[in-house]
Write a sequence for this structure.
């Protein structure tokens, strides 16, 4: 499951530099998460770092449009980081 940044976002810039997959970027009004790059930090951390550093509770949530199993997140992690090393 990719994560989603809700309209509660205050653009504090805490989440973007913490993302190990470079999945977070500034959108039109608030930060957004690229579901093709988000692994919920699988392969890096036990819990998503963006959720940990966000100062506003329930601003970064599971995206209901992009549900993925833990295995799918691992596969995405391998593809993303193997391709970057080539």
């Amino acid at each position: 499951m990719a994560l989603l940044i809700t309209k509660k976002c205050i653009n504090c810039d805490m989440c973007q530099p913490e993302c190990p997959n470079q999945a977070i970027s500034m959108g039109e009004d608030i930060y957004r998460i690229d579901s093709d790059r988000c692994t919920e930090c699988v392969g890096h951390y036990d819990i998503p770092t963006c959720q940990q550093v966000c100062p506003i509770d329930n601003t970064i949530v599971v995206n209901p449009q992009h549900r993925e199993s833990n295995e799918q997140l691992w596969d995405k992690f391998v593809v993303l980081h193997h391709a970057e090393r080539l």
Q: What stands out?
A: The longest strand covers residues 3-5. The chain has a mean pLDDT of 93.
